[in-house]
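Deliverable D5.2: sample structural annotation.
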Amino acid sequence: MYFDFEFGQRLSRGKILFALATALSCALVTVTGIEYFRSQTSFDDVQTELATARNKNANDIKPVVAKQDQEQLQTEFKLAQQTVDQLGIPWAKVFAQVSADATNDVSLLSLEPNAKEKELTLVAEARNNEAMFAYVLKFQRNDFFREVYLTHHSANTQDPLRPVQFTLLARWG
């Protein structure tokens, strides 16, 4: 076989520039393609590692709370729970029954509900022992409170009228 090359023939500048530009473009496209493939592979690897790390650490993440903050949160939680308990007291029924049992001979001094135990501690003052016992019997007969106890009573000997101060414990529910 025989190849005949004509080396003596000169190429025009336009053809040379075109050939160089084509060769440079091909090299640039090849390098860009290789870099794109490398970066895409690297990106996929990073995405896989990130997903693995998220899944692994999802259950391991625990909130960091200082001991003082935790104690304060516990205190605030207890206060909130007490407030919720107080809201759960059937106030309308309690006041309706206390009002229904009111007499002119007895003055209420305080009402102290205990929502957790469903108890009401009532402190009152009566003109005399008979008025106190009548009030206690009337309170025991109402429909709302199921148990009523006279827990304390004392006469005020310093007062010339000698009123009797007493405490009732009444349970509802």
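Annotation notes: Residues 13-58 form the longest helix (46 residues). The beta strands are 106-114, 119-126, 145-155, 164-172.
The annotation will be released with the project's public dataset once the embargo ends.
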